[in-house]
Amino acid sequence: AQKVTQAQTEISVVEKEDVTLDCVYETRDTTYYLFWYKQPPSGELVFLIRRNSFDEQNEISGRYSWNFQKSTSSFNFTITASQVVDSAVYFCALSEASNTGFQKLVFGTGTRLLVSP
Amino acid sequence: DAGVTQSPTHLIKTRGQQVTLRCSPKSGHDTVSWYQQALGQGPQFIFQYYEEEERQRGNFPDRFSGHQFPNYSSELNVNALLLGDSALYLCASNPRQVRVPTEAFFGQGTRLTVV
């Protein structure tokens, strides 16, 4: 069975601080995909990134970066120089590579990030 | 492009009643999934529809049922509501693609409160 663990329930930082959100996953699949989504107070989940299990190269997108380590089954997310607008709940999710094309996301419990001015 | 739209945004129902939630997928998307998100929890997969058929189902009782229409829009029905059904119900759409999961777009959800 697939499982995603986000041990950090809530993190509070002051603007301009760097913050890392942890994600640990479990799966028996050899091919799988990892995602990060952001959920602002409005409720909709906003896609941030998708990585496949064969690509362990770290990725940077502006102030966001992701560190994927297959050896420790972790896919951590770092926000550099945090801003108040980064305040939201962040979810890590896992999906198998489906031969049928029908995917489902298995989410962690989320980490609430509070960035104060 | 309006993205994924859901209606209503909020709903209050009494235990034992039935409820129908609606979702219009993003333009060009043919697959619709429904998730239940309890307060303080991550979304839990309910089921997924493609070509008007249920293709995958999560660990939810038969009280939860759905439908997809020829225009790809979808409904989620919940019968015999329980207090524990109170949650944010999220609809997601994506274009079906074999092997590589595509980015799922989510609506803002319907907040269901059962009293």
In short:
The complex is a heterodimer of chains A (117) and B (115). Chain A is an all-beta fold. Chain A contains no helices and twelve strands.
Tell me what you see in this structure.
- The complex is a heterodimer of chains A (117) and B (115).
- With 117 residues, chain A is an all-beta fold.
- Helix content of chain A is 0%, strand content 52%.
- Chain A has strands at 3-5, 10-14, 19-21, 24-26, 32-39, 46-52, 59-61, 64-69, 74-79, 88-96, 106-107, 111-116.
- In chain A, a hairpin with a 2-residue loop joins strand 7 and strand 8 (64-69).
- Chain A is globular.
- The termini of chain A are far apart.
- The model of chain A has no long low-confidence stretch (mean pLDDT 93).
- Chain B has 115 residues and is mainly beta.
- In chain B, the strands form two sheets. In chain B, strands 2, 4, 5, 6, 9, 10 and 11 form a seven-stranded mixed sheet that branches.
- In chain B, strand 5 (44-50) and strand 6 (53-57) form a beta hairpin.
- Chain B is built from no helices and eleven strands.
- Chain B has strands spanning 5-7, 10-13, 19-24, 31-37, 44-50, 53-57, 64-68, 74-78, 87-94, 105-106, 110-114.
Mean of residue pLDDT values of chain A? 93
Number of helices of chain A: 0
Shape descriptor of chain A: globular
Helix content of chain A: under 10%
Give the SSE string of chain B: EEEEEEEEEEE
| Count of DSSP strands of chain A | 12
Proportion of residues in extended strands of chain B: over 45%
Strand tally of chain B: 11
Structural class of chain B: mainly beta
**Helix/strand/pairing category of chain A:** mainly beta
Low-confidence parts of chain A lasting 5 or more residues at pLDDT below 50? none
Q: Can you tell me the residue ranges of chain B where pLDDT is under 50 for at least 5 consecutive residues?
A: none
How is the biggest beta sheet of chain B arranged? 7 strands, mixed
Considering residues with a beta carbon less than 8 A from a beta carbon on another chain, report the largest interface and each chain's count.
Answer: A-B, 29 and 34 residues
Secondary structure tally, helices of chain B: 0
Distance between the termini of chain A: 41 Å
Main beta sheet of chain A: 6 strands, mixed
The gross shape of chain B turns out to be globular
